[in-house]
Amino acid sequence: MIRVVLPHHLRTLAHVGNEVALDVGGAVTQRTVLDALETAYPMLRGTIRDHTTLERRAFIRFFACEEDLSHQSPDSPLPDDVATGKEPFLVIGAIAGG
Amino acid sequence: MSKVRVLVGTRKGAFVLEADGQRKKWTVNGPHFPGWEIYHVKGSPADPDRLFASQTSGWFGQIIQRSDDGGKTWHQPGTPPGEPAKTPDGMPKGESNKFTYDASPETGKPLTTHQWYDGSQRPWEFKRVWHVEPSRTDPDTAYAGVEDAALFRTTDGGQNWKELSGLRGHGTGPQWQPGAGGLCLHTIIEDPKDPRRLFVAISSAGAFRTDDGGTTWKPINRGLRSSYIPDPDAEIGHCVHRIALHASRPNVLFMQKHWDVLRSDDAGDSWREVSGNLPSDFGFVIDVNANEPETIYVVPIKSDSEHFVPDGKLRVYRSRTGGNEWEALTNGLPQSDCYVNVLRDAMAVDSLDKCGVYFGTTGGQVYASADAGDNWAPIVRDLPPVLSVEVQTLR
Predict the structure, then answer these.
(1) Are B238 and B229 in contact (CB under 8 A)?
(2) Residue A42, SS3?
(3) Cα(B383)–Cα(B379) distance, rounded to whole angstroms?
(4) Whole-model pTM above 0.90?
(5) Is A46 close to B95, i.e. CB distance below 8 A?
(6) Which residues of B255-282 are buried (b: 16+ CB within 10 A; e: fewer)?
(7) pLDDT tens-digit map of B260-270
(8) Residue A49: which of A38, A63, A64, A65 has the closest Cα?
Protein backbone atom coordinates (compact mmCIF):
# COMPACT_ATOMS: atom_id res chain seq x y z
CA MET A 1 0.00 0.00 0.00
CA ILE A 2 1.14 3.53 -0.76
CA ARG A 3 0.97 5.95 2.14
CA VAL A 4 -0.02 9.56 1.38
CA VAL A 5 0.04 12.41 3.87
CA LEU A 6 -2.27 15.33 3.06
CA PRO A 7 -2.20 18.91 4.36
CA HIS A 8 -4.73 19.77 7.03
CA HIS A 9 -7.23 21.50 4.76
CA LEU A 10 -7.42 18.54 2.41
CA ARG A 11 -7.80 16.10 5.29
CA THR A 12 -10.89 17.95 6.43
CA LEU A 13 -12.19 18.11 2.88
CA ALA A 14 -11.74 14.35 2.37
CA HIS A 15 -12.76 13.47 5.94
CA VAL A 16 -9.57 11.49 6.56
CA GLY A 17 -6.89 11.38 9.21
CA ASN A 18 -3.20 12.18 8.97
CA GLU A 19 -2.47 9.54 6.40
CA VAL A 20 -4.35 7.58 3.73
CA ALA A 21 -3.37 4.20 2.29
CA LEU A 22 -3.83 3.55 -1.42
CA ASP A 23 -3.57 0.50 -3.58
CA VAL A 24 -1.71 1.53 -6.74
CA GLY A 25 -1.53 -1.03 -9.51
CA GLY A 26 1.57 -1.05 -11.75
CA ALA A 27 4.25 1.61 -11.69
CA VAL A 28 4.27 3.92 -8.68
CA THR A 29 4.58 7.48 -9.95
CA GLN A 30 3.18 10.85 -8.96
CA ARG A 31 0.52 10.42 -11.61
CA THR A 32 -0.59 6.92 -10.58
CA VAL A 33 -0.60 7.83 -6.90
CA LEU A 34 -2.65 10.98 -7.51
CA ASP A 35 -5.00 9.10 -9.85
CA ALA A 36 -5.61 6.54 -7.10
CA LEU A 37 -6.01 9.29 -4.51
CA GLU A 38 -8.60 11.15 -6.60
CA THR A 39 -10.50 7.96 -7.37
CA ALA A 40 -10.76 7.14 -3.69
CA TYR A 41 -11.46 10.73 -2.71
CA PRO A 42 -13.01 12.52 -5.70
CA MET A 43 -13.63 15.62 -3.63
CA LEU A 44 -9.88 16.23 -3.93
CA ARG A 45 -10.02 16.58 -7.69
CA GLY A 46 -8.83 20.04 -8.69
CA THR A 47 -7.30 20.76 -5.29
CA ILE A 48 -3.83 19.27 -5.87
CA ARG A 49 -3.57 19.46 -9.66
CA ASP A 50 -5.56 21.24 -12.30
CA HIS A 51 -8.75 19.53 -13.45
CA THR A 52 -7.95 19.61 -17.12
CA THR A 53 -4.18 19.84 -17.49
CA LEU A 54 -3.45 17.69 -14.43
CA GLU A 55 -0.54 20.00 -13.65
CA ARG A 56 0.40 20.54 -10.00
CA ARG A 57 -1.25 23.63 -8.52
CA ALA A 58 1.18 26.47 -8.00
CA PHE A 59 1.25 26.38 -4.20
CA ILE A 60 1.42 22.59 -3.81
CA ARG A 61 4.68 20.68 -3.27
CA PHE A 62 5.46 16.95 -3.25
CA PHE A 63 8.05 15.64 -0.80
CA ALA A 64 9.24 12.11 0.00
CA CYS A 65 12.31 10.56 1.63
CA GLU A 66 13.58 14.04 2.55
CA GLU A 67 13.58 15.13 -1.09
CA ASP A 68 11.53 17.68 -3.00
CA LEU A 69 9.95 15.81 -5.91
CA SER A 70 7.73 18.68 -7.03
CA HIS A 71 9.55 19.34 -10.26
CA GLN A 72 10.13 15.76 -11.29
CA SER A 73 8.16 14.31 -14.16
CA PRO A 74 4.76 13.02 -13.02
CA ASP A 75 5.64 9.76 -14.74
CA SER A 76 9.00 9.23 -13.03
CA PRO A 77 9.06 6.33 -10.57
CA LEU A 78 8.76 7.41 -6.97
CA PRO A 79 11.46 6.22 -4.53
CA ASP A 80 11.38 2.54 -3.62
CA ASP A 81 10.65 3.38 -0.01
CA VAL A 82 7.44 5.09 -1.14
CA ALA A 83 6.53 2.23 -3.45
CA THR A 84 6.96 -0.30 -0.64
CA GLY A 85 5.07 1.78 1.90
CA LYS A 86 8.07 2.32 4.13
CA GLU A 87 7.93 6.09 3.63
CA PRO A 88 4.88 8.28 2.88
CA PHE A 89 4.36 10.53 -0.13
CA LEU A 90 3.82 14.02 1.27
CA VAL A 91 1.45 16.55 -0.32
CA ILE A 92 2.39 19.93 1.15
CA GLY A 93 0.82 23.37 1.00
CA ALA A 94 3.74 25.63 0.10
CA ILE A 95 5.14 28.11 2.66
CA ALA A 96 6.89 26.43 5.53
CA GLY A 97 5.79 28.69 8.36
CA GLY A 98 3.68 31.66 9.35
CA MET B 1 -43.82 30.68 14.11
CA SER B 2 -41.41 32.33 11.74
CA LYS B 3 -37.71 31.71 12.00
CA VAL B 4 -34.69 33.48 10.59
CA ARG B 5 -31.48 31.86 9.43
CA VAL B 6 -28.46 34.08 8.76
CA LEU B 7 -25.71 32.57 6.61
CA VAL B 8 -22.30 34.09 7.18
CA GLY B 9 -19.19 33.56 5.05
CA THR B 10 -15.86 34.56 6.59
CA ARG B 11 -12.16 34.43 5.88
CA LYS B 12 -11.89 31.28 8.00
CA GLY B 13 -15.14 29.39 7.69
CA ALA B 14 -18.93 29.60 7.52
CA PHE B 15 -21.40 30.19 10.33
CA VAL B 16 -25.15 29.65 10.56
CA LEU B 17 -27.00 31.96 12.97
CA GLU B 18 -30.60 31.18 13.84
CA ALA B 19 -33.38 32.86 15.81
CA ASP B 20 -37.14 32.86 15.98
CA GLY B 21 -39.19 35.68 14.53
CA GLN B 22 -38.48 37.89 17.52
CA ARG B 23 -34.82 37.92 16.43
CA LYS B 24 -33.52 38.44 19.95
CA LYS B 25 -32.00 35.12 21.03
CA TRP B 26 -29.57 33.60 18.58
CA THR B 27 -27.79 30.29 18.22
CA VAL B 28 -24.43 30.26 16.47
CA ASN B 29 -23.38 27.13 14.58
CA GLY B 30 -19.93 26.79 13.10
CA PRO B 31 -17.35 27.14 11.92
CA HIS B 32 -18.16 25.00 8.95
CA PHE B 33 -15.12 24.38 6.71
CA PRO B 34 -12.76 25.86 9.34
CA GLY B 35 -9.69 27.51 7.93
CA TRP B 36 -11.14 27.95 4.42
CA GLU B 37 -12.27 31.22 2.89
CA ILE B 38 -16.03 31.12 2.43
CA TYR B 39 -16.85 33.85 -0.03
CA HIS B 40 -20.59 33.26 -0.06
CA VAL B 41 -23.36 31.05 1.33
CA LYS B 42 -26.91 31.32 0.05
CA GLY B 43 -30.11 29.30 0.32
CA SER B 44 -32.48 28.30 -2.44
CA PRO B 45 -35.78 30.21 -2.40
CA ALA B 46 -37.36 27.10 -3.93
CA ASP B 47 -36.10 24.80 -1.16
CA PRO B 48 -34.88 26.63 1.94
CA ASP B 49 -33.05 23.56 3.24
CA ARG B 50 -30.80 23.61 0.20
CA LEU B 51 -27.79 25.85 0.64
CA PHE B 52 -24.81 26.45 -1.61
CA ALA B 53 -21.42 27.60 -0.31
CA SER B 54 -18.35 28.82 -2.15
CA GLN B 55 -15.29 27.45 -0.36
CA THR B 56 -11.99 28.67 -1.73
CA SER B 57 -8.26 28.73 -1.11
CA GLY B 58 -5.24 30.17 -2.86
CA TRP B 59 -3.53 26.85 -2.27
CA PHE B 60 -6.22 24.32 -3.04
CA GLY B 61 -8.58 26.13 -5.40
CA GLN B 62 -12.35 26.26 -5.59
CA ILE B 63 -14.87 23.95 -3.93
CA ILE B 64 -18.65 24.16 -4.10
CA GLN B 65 -20.39 22.70 -1.08
CA ARG B 66 -24.07 21.93 -0.77
CA SER B 67 -26.31 21.30 2.19
CA ASP B 68 -29.75 19.72 1.89
CA ASP B 69 -30.66 20.10 5.55
CA GLY B 70 -30.34 23.80 6.21
CA GLY B 71 -26.64 23.81 6.95
CA LYS B 72 -26.39 20.94 9.42
CA THR B 73 -24.41 18.73 7.04
CA TRP B 74 -22.58 19.50 3.81
CA HIS B 75 -21.24 17.61 0.82
CA GLN B 76 -19.66 18.26 -2.55
CA PRO B 77 -22.16 17.36 -5.26
CA GLY B 78 -19.65 15.43 -7.34
CA THR B 79 -18.52 11.91 -8.12
CA PRO B 80 -19.15 9.48 -5.22
CA PRO B 81 -16.03 7.98 -3.60
CA GLY B 82 -14.73 4.87 -5.33
CA GLU B 83 -16.07 5.74 -8.77
CA PRO B 84 -13.52 6.47 -11.51
CA ALA B 85 -12.69 10.14 -11.73
CA LYS B 86 -12.49 9.96 -15.51
CA THR B 87 -14.95 9.04 -18.22
CA PRO B 88 -14.30 5.87 -20.28
CA ASP B 89 -12.64 7.99 -22.96
CA GLY B 90 -10.21 9.41 -20.43
CA MET B 91 -11.73 12.83 -19.92
CA PRO B 92 -12.10 14.24 -16.41
CA LYS B 93 -15.64 13.98 -15.14
CA GLY B 94 -17.49 17.15 -14.41
CA GLU B 95 -17.08 17.96 -10.75
CA SER B 96 -18.63 20.51 -8.48
CA ASN B 97 -15.32 22.33 -8.20
CA LYS B 98 -14.63 22.45 -11.92
CA PHE B 99 -15.11 25.82 -13.60
CA THR B 100 -13.79 25.84 -17.14
CA TYR B 101 -14.23 28.85 -19.39
CA ASP B 102 -16.03 28.18 -22.62
CA ALA B 103 -13.37 28.38 -25.33
CA SER B 104 -15.27 26.59 -28.07
CA PRO B 105 -14.92 28.17 -31.51
CA GLU B 106 -18.67 28.67 -31.79
CA THR B 107 -19.08 30.68 -28.63
CA GLY B 108 -15.92 31.67 -26.88
CA LYS B 109 -12.69 31.10 -28.69
CA PRO B 110 -11.86 34.77 -29.33
CA LEU B 111 -12.48 35.58 -25.67
CA THR B 112 -8.98 34.92 -24.57
CA THR B 113 -7.93 38.19 -22.94
CA HIS B 114 -9.11 41.04 -20.77
CA GLN B 115 -7.43 44.26 -19.75
CA TRP B 116 -4.83 44.13 -16.96
CA TYR B 117 -4.16 46.95 -14.48
CA ASP B 118 -1.51 48.46 -16.75
CA GLY B 119 -3.75 48.38 -19.81
CA SER B 120 -2.14 45.35 -21.38
CA GLN B 121 -4.14 42.25 -22.27
CA ARG B 122 -4.12 39.14 -20.06
CA PRO B 123 -5.71 35.74 -20.56
CA TRP B 124 -8.73 34.84 -18.50
CA GLU B 125 -7.69 32.70 -15.52
CA PHE B 126 -10.20 31.18 -13.13
CA LYS B 127 -9.53 32.03 -9.48
CA ARG B 128 -12.64 31.63 -7.34
CA VAL B 129 -16.41 31.90 -7.03
CA TRP B 130 -17.47 35.16 -5.41
CA HIS B 131 -21.23 34.70 -5.40
CA VAL B 132 -23.72 31.85 -5.80
CA GLU B 133 -27.26 32.84 -6.69
CA PRO B 134 -29.78 29.99 -6.45
CA SER B 135 -32.75 30.11 -8.81
CA ARG B 136 -35.96 31.47 -7.37
CA THR B 137 -37.93 28.52 -8.75
CA ASP B 138 -35.69 25.45 -9.22
CA PRO B 139 -33.58 24.09 -6.35
CA ASP B 140 -31.21 22.37 -8.81
CA THR B 141 -30.43 25.56 -10.70
CA ALA B 142 -27.99 28.18 -9.49
CA TYR B 143 -25.69 30.79 -10.96
CA ALA B 144 -22.07 31.41 -9.96
CA GLY B 145 -20.21 34.67 -10.44
CA VAL B 146 -16.49 34.08 -10.68
CA GLU B 147 -13.08 35.77 -10.86
CA ASP B 148 -11.82 36.33 -13.58
CA ALA B 149 -15.25 37.64 -14.40
CA ALA B 150 -17.70 35.20 -15.94
CA LEU B 151 -21.10 33.72 -15.18
CA PHE B 152 -21.65 29.98 -14.76
CA ARG B 153 -24.87 28.00 -14.27
CA THR B 154 -25.65 24.60 -12.83
CA THR B 155 -28.90 22.77 -13.49
CA ASP B 156 -28.03 19.62 -11.54
CA GLY B 157 -27.68 20.91 -8.01
CA GLY B 158 -24.08 22.03 -8.34
CA GLN B 159 -22.43 18.96 -9.81
CA ASN B 160 -21.64 20.50 -13.18
CA TRP B 161 -21.14 24.18 -14.02
CA LYS B 162 -21.32 25.60 -17.53
CA GLU B 163 -20.36 29.09 -18.55
CA LEU B 164 -22.94 31.43 -20.04
CA SER B 165 -20.33 32.70 -22.43
CA GLY B 166 -22.55 35.23 -24.16
CA LEU B 167 -21.65 37.62 -21.34
CA ARG B 168 -17.91 37.58 -22.01
CA GLY B 169 -18.63 37.30 -25.70
CA HIS B 170 -20.94 40.24 -26.28
CA GLY B 171 -18.01 42.41 -27.36
CA THR B 172 -16.69 44.45 -24.46
CA GLY B 173 -14.82 41.65 -22.64
CA PRO B 174 -11.35 42.73 -23.75
CA GLN B 175 -12.01 46.16 -22.14
CA TRP B 176 -12.84 44.75 -18.70
CA GLN B 177 -10.18 45.33 -16.09
CA PRO B 178 -9.79 44.19 -12.48
CA GLY B 179 -10.69 46.36 -9.53
CA ALA B 180 -8.59 46.31 -6.40
CA GLY B 181 -10.21 43.03 -5.39
CA GLY B 182 -9.72 41.40 -8.76
CA LEU B 183 -11.82 41.06 -11.92
CA CYS B 184 -14.84 39.60 -10.17
CA LEU B 185 -18.47 39.03 -11.07
CA HIS B 186 -20.01 39.61 -7.66
CA THR B 187 -23.68 40.45 -8.14
CA ILE B 188 -26.31 38.25 -9.77
CA ILE B 189 -30.01 39.09 -9.62
CA GLU B 190 -32.71 36.99 -11.21
CA ASP B 191 -35.71 39.12 -12.12
CA PRO B 192 -38.50 37.93 -9.80
CA LYS B 193 -41.13 38.36 -12.49
CA ASP B 194 -39.17 37.19 -15.52
CA PRO B 195 -36.62 34.40 -14.98
CA ARG B 196 -35.16 35.02 -18.42
CA ARG B 197 -33.94 38.42 -17.27
CA LEU B 198 -30.75 38.53 -15.20
CA PHE B 199 -28.70 41.43 -13.93
CA VAL B 200 -25.00 41.03 -13.10
CA ALA B 201 -22.28 43.40 -12.01
CA ILE B 202 -18.52 43.18 -12.46
CA SER B 203 -15.67 45.07 -10.87
CA SER B 204 -14.38 46.88 -12.81
CA ALA B 205 -16.49 46.61 -15.91
CA GLY B 206 -20.00 47.64 -14.91
CA ALA B 207 -23.52 46.25 -14.92
CA PHE B 208 -25.00 43.99 -17.59
CA ARG B 209 -28.42 42.56 -18.41
CA THR B 210 -29.75 39.63 -20.36
CA ASP B 211 -33.38 39.31 -21.40
CA ASP B 212 -33.10 35.84 -22.94
CA GLY B 213 -31.87 33.64 -20.13
CA GLY B 214 -28.20 34.43 -20.53
CA THR B 215 -27.64 33.96 -24.25
CA THR B 216 -27.17 37.62 -25.17
CA TRP B 217 -26.12 40.51 -22.93
CA LYS B 218 -25.78 44.26 -23.03
CA PRO B 219 -24.03 46.77 -20.77
CA ILE B 220 -26.43 48.91 -18.71
CA ASN B 221 -24.21 51.74 -17.50
CA ARG B 222 -25.68 54.88 -19.03
CA GLY B 223 -25.61 57.66 -16.45
CA LEU B 224 -22.64 56.30 -14.51
CA ARG B 225 -19.63 58.61 -14.22
CA SER B 226 -16.23 57.42 -13.01
CA SER B 227 -13.25 59.75 -12.84
CA TYR B 228 -10.76 56.87 -12.76
CA ILE B 229 -11.30 55.89 -16.41
CA PRO B 230 -10.20 57.87 -19.47
CA ASP B 231 -13.77 58.59 -20.57
CA PRO B 232 -15.74 59.15 -17.33
CA ASP B 233 -19.09 58.18 -18.85
CA ALA B 234 -17.87 55.34 -21.03
CA GLU B 235 -20.04 52.33 -21.66
CA ILE B 236 -17.56 50.03 -19.86
CA GLY B 237 -15.06 50.38 -17.03
CA HIS B 238 -17.19 51.40 -14.04
CA CYS B 239 -16.49 49.73 -10.73
CA VAL B 240 -20.00 48.75 -9.67
CA HIS B 241 -19.88 47.39 -6.12
CA ARG B 242 -23.43 46.15 -5.65
CA ILE B 243 -26.93 46.26 -7.13
CA ALA B 244 -30.21 45.57 -5.32
CA LEU B 245 -33.90 45.59 -6.17
CA HIS B 246 -37.25 45.04 -4.48
CA ALA B 247 -39.12 41.96 -5.65
CA SER B 248 -42.29 43.92 -6.37
CA ARG B 249 -40.56 46.37 -8.72
CA PRO B 250 -37.85 44.64 -10.72
CA ASN B 251 -37.44 47.62 -13.03
CA VAL B 252 -36.20 49.77 -10.14
CA LEU B 253 -32.56 49.11 -9.37
CA PHE B 254 -30.31 50.65 -6.75
CA MET B 255 -26.54 50.70 -7.10
CA GLN B 256 -23.59 51.36 -4.82
CA LYS B 257 -20.72 52.20 -7.13
CA HIS B 258 -17.05 52.66 -6.19
CA TRP B 259 -18.11 56.26 -5.64
CA ASP B 260 -21.77 57.30 -5.98
CA VAL B 261 -25.10 55.76 -5.09
CA LEU B 262 -27.45 55.56 -8.06
CA ARG B 263 -30.90 54.39 -9.07
CA SER B 264 -32.53 53.27 -12.28
CA ASP B 265 -36.26 53.18 -12.98
CA ASP B 266 -35.95 51.43 -16.32
CA ALA B 267 -34.19 48.15 -15.51
CA GLY B 268 -30.76 49.70 -15.87
CA ASP B 269 -31.21 51.44 -19.21
CA SER B 270 -30.39 54.72 -17.49
CA TRP B 271 -29.15 55.72 -14.03
CA ARG B 272 -29.17 58.87 -11.93
CA GLU B 273 -27.20 59.67 -8.83
CA VAL B 274 -29.07 59.69 -5.49
CA SER B 275 -26.14 60.12 -3.10
CA GLY B 276 -27.76 63.24 -1.63
CA ASN B 277 -26.59 64.07 1.88
CA LEU B 278 -24.50 60.97 2.55
CA PRO B 279 -21.25 61.75 4.42
CA SER B 280 -19.41 59.72 1.77
CA ASP B 281 -20.87 58.10 -1.29
CA PHE B 282 -18.11 55.49 -1.41
CA GLY B 283 -19.21 52.11 -0.10
CA PHE B 284 -19.83 48.51 -0.96
CA VAL B 285 -23.25 47.31 0.21
CA ILE B 286 -26.75 48.42 -0.71
CA ASP B 287 -30.05 46.73 0.02
CA VAL B 288 -33.79 47.37 -0.08
CA ASN B 289 -36.29 46.98 2.76
CA ALA B 290 -38.44 43.92 2.04
CA ASN B 291 -41.67 45.74 2.93
CA GLU B 292 -40.98 49.24 1.65
CA PRO B 293 -39.66 49.42 -1.93
CA GLU B 294 -38.47 53.00 -1.52
CA THR B 295 -36.51 52.31 1.68
CA ILE B 296 -32.88 51.53 1.02
CA TYR B 297 -29.75 51.06 3.11
CA VAL B 298 -26.05 51.75 2.58
CA VAL B 299 -22.98 51.85 4.81
CA PRO B 300 -20.77 54.76 3.73
CA ILE B 301 -17.02 54.13 3.77
CA LYS B 302 -14.54 56.98 4.02
CA SER B 303 -12.82 56.61 0.65
CA ASP B 304 -11.37 54.26 -1.92
CA SER B 305 -8.01 54.35 -0.15
CA GLU B 306 -9.36 54.38 3.41
CA HIS B 307 -11.65 51.39 3.58
CA PHE B 308 -13.26 52.09 6.93
CA VAL B 309 -16.27 54.00 8.18
CA PRO B 310 -15.92 57.82 8.42
CA ASP B 311 -15.08 59.47 11.75
CA GLY B 312 -14.70 56.18 13.60
CA LYS B 313 -18.50 55.79 13.62
CA LEU B 314 -20.31 52.76 12.26
CA ARG B 315 -23.45 54.20 10.69
CA VAL B 316 -25.99 52.61 8.42
CA TYR B 317 -27.74 55.20 6.29
CA ARG B 318 -31.37 54.76 5.37
CA SER B 319 -33.35 56.58 2.73
CA ARG B 320 -37.15 56.29 2.78
CA THR B 321 -37.44 58.24 -0.43
CA GLY B 322 -35.52 55.95 -2.75
CA GLY B 323 -32.36 57.99 -2.37
CA ASN B 324 -31.17 61.61 -2.03
CA GLU B 325 -32.50 62.07 1.54
CA TRP B 326 -30.60 59.93 4.03
CA GLU B 327 -30.70 59.50 7.80
CA ALA B 328 -27.98 57.97 9.96
CA LEU B 329 -28.93 54.87 11.96
CA THR B 330 -26.68 54.57 14.97
CA ASN B 331 -28.58 53.08 17.92
CA GLY B 332 -26.57 50.11 19.13
CA LEU B 333 -23.68 50.63 16.72
CA PRO B 334 -20.22 51.79 17.87
CA GLN B 335 -19.87 55.56 17.53
CA SER B 336 -16.21 55.98 18.40
CA ASP B 337 -12.90 54.35 17.47
CA CYS B 338 -14.49 52.02 14.92
CA TYR B 339 -12.57 51.39 11.70
CA VAL B 340 -14.21 48.41 10.05
CA ASN B 341 -15.41 47.91 6.51
CA VAL B 342 -18.58 46.21 5.27
CA LEU B 343 -17.87 44.24 2.11
CA ARG B 344 -20.16 44.14 -0.91
CA ASP B 345 -21.96 40.86 -0.16
CA ALA B 346 -22.21 41.44 3.59
CA MET B 347 -25.69 42.99 3.97
CA ALA B 348 -29.07 41.30 3.69
CA VAL B 349 -32.69 41.74 4.77
CA ASP B 350 -35.35 39.32 5.98
CA SER B 351 -39.00 39.53 4.92
CA LEU B 352 -40.65 39.79 8.32
CA ASP B 353 -42.66 42.77 9.48
CA LYS B 354 -40.80 44.83 10.60
CA CYS B 355 -38.05 44.13 8.17
CA GLY B 356 -34.86 42.74 9.68
CA VAL B 357 -31.59 44.16 8.40
CA TYR B 358 -28.25 42.39 8.86
CA PHE B 359 -24.65 43.14 8.03
CA GLY B 360 -21.20 41.80 8.83
CA THR B 361 -17.93 43.67 9.20
CA THR B 362 -14.29 43.05 8.51
CA GLY B 363 -13.89 43.13 12.30
CA GLY B 364 -15.95 39.96 12.62
CA GLN B 365 -19.15 41.46 13.99
CA VAL B 366 -22.57 40.55 12.62
CA TYR B 367 -25.17 43.18 13.53
CA ALA B 368 -28.93 42.76 13.29
CA SER B 369 -31.83 45.15 13.46
CA ALA B 370 -35.32 43.71 13.95
CA ASP B 371 -37.00 47.07 13.36
CA ALA B 372 -35.88 48.17 9.91
CA GLY B 373 -32.70 49.78 11.19
CA ASP B 374 -33.94 51.87 14.11
CA ASN B 375 -32.04 49.76 16.66
CA TRP B 376 -29.10 47.41 16.28
CA ALA B 377 -27.43 44.71 18.33
CA PRO B 378 -24.60 42.34 17.54
CA ILE B 379 -25.50 38.69 17.02
CA VAL B 380 -21.81 37.82 17.33
CA ARG B 381 -18.82 40.08 17.82
CA ASP B 382 -15.71 38.04 17.22
CA LEU B 383 -15.93 36.01 14.03
CA PRO B 384 -13.16 36.08 11.43
CA PRO B 385 -13.51 38.95 8.92
CA VAL B 386 -16.97 38.68 7.36
CA LEU B 387 -17.14 38.30 3.57
CA SER B 388 -20.85 37.71 3.09
CA VAL B 389 -24.19 37.72 4.88
CA GLU B 390 -27.41 36.23 3.56
CA VAL B 391 -30.75 35.75 5.31
CA GLN B 392 -33.49 33.18 4.97
CA THR B 393 -36.96 33.86 6.37
CA LEU B 394 -38.44 30.48 7.27
CA ARG B 395 -42.18 30.22 7.90
Answers:
(1) yes
(2) helix
(3) 10
(4) yes
(5) yes
(6) bbbbbbbbbbeebbeebebbbeebbbbb
(7) 999 999 999 99
(8) A38
